[in-house]
C-alpha cells in the first residue's frame, strides 16, 4: 500500500481547455478517497494523470513518495477499474483475471492461486470458465475488480465502475465494493458523478468543479459545513434550497416574509451588508398544521408533490429571488416554468412525512429549522462564518 498525492497539478489540453487547475490533494495510505463532481469537473482527468494515461502539464504526482510523472503506467504499481469493464470477450473469467499476471511472466501456479483466491472472495468461483457474454453486468463488474485485485498493487484507481449498472444493482455493488475495500485495506481513489455514491462509500470526499478542488472532507462534514454554494448545492439529495434574503435587525427578510434569526447566528451574517444567500436543506423543513401559530414558518404555493413512500417531496415557490446552481437550474425547469421570470423566483423543496395532505395549487405553511440555516456571500459564494 502507499499514499498518493497531487502537488500543484494542472492539465491543459492542446485546444486550451484547462481540465485540472493546480490540484493539491493528499490520499493517505490505505484510504478510500472519492473524487466527485459533475461532468467536465476534471475528476476523471485527475485519475488518468495518476494512472499515467494523461501527462500532467505541470505539478508533481507521487505514489508512495515516489515521483511518477515520467514513469510509464505499467511501472506505477497501480490497478485501474474502468467504467466499461474492458474484459477480453474471447477469454474466460479466469484468463481475464490472470491476464496482467501472465504479462508480468508470473509462474502459472502463482497465477492460479491468486486468481482462485480473488474468485472466492468475489463469489466468482463457479463462473471462472464462463466468458463475459455469459455474465450479468454485476458479474462482469466483479471480474474487472478481480483482475485488479490479483495484481496486489499499491493502489486501486476506479473510474465510475458502477455507472453501467441499473439502479438496484448499483446500490448492491457499491456496498459490496466498500466492504471489499475495507477487507483489502488498499489505497483507493474512486471517481464518480453520483454524490450519493460518494457520500455512502468515501472515507473522505473531494468535490471538484471546473477543474478546481472546491472542498475535501469527511462526507458528513461536507453535508453539515459546505465551504461554498457549489458544494452546498451539489452534496445532498434533493439539493439544498437557496434564496436571496437580507438581515433586518433580529429577522431574516425573505421576499415579503420574515423569519426570526437564531440567537447564535454567525457574526459574519449579522455584520454582512446587503443581500446574503440563505440555504436550507429539504429535511430541515416541516409542515405546519392549519391554525397552529408558528413564528418560523413561510407560506408558499405548492407546485408539485412527489410521493416516495417513506417521504413526500413538496415543491413550492417563494416570492423572493432565487440563487440557482447549474444542476438546480435544470431541476427548476423540469418542475415547471422556464421563463426568466419563473426562474427568478426561489423554488423551495420540503421533505415531509407521508401523512401530509397537500396538492398542487394549494398553499402550505412550512416551518424552517433556523438553527440549520446556511449563509453565503452572494459575490464570493463562500460560507459566512
Largest sheet: 6 strands, mixed
Structural class: alpha+beta
- Unreliable stretches covering 5 or more consecutive residues: none
Strand percent estimate: 25-35%
User: What does the overall shape look like?
Assistant: elongated
Compute the number of helices: 11
Tell me the total number of β-strands. Answer: 20
| Alpha carbon gap, first and last residue | 39 Å
Average pLDDT number: 90
> So what's the oligomer here?
single chain
Report on the structure:
There is one protein chain. The protein has a 6-stranded mixed sheet, sandwiched between helices. 27% of the residues lie in helices and 32% in strands. It has helices at residues 43-51, 93-103, 108-122, 137-149, 167-184, 195-201, 219-224, 229-234, 267-270, 326-335, 340-343, and strands spanning 4-12, 18-27, 32-36, 58-63, 66-67, 78-81, 155-159, 187-192, 204-209, 212-217, 241-248, 251-254, 257-260, 275-280, 285-287, 297-307, 312-321, 345-352, 363-368, 374-376. The model has no long low-confidence stretch (mean pLDDT 90). The two termini are 39 Å apart. It has 11 helices and 20 strands. The radius of gyration is 25 Å and the shape is elongated. It is an alpha+beta fold.
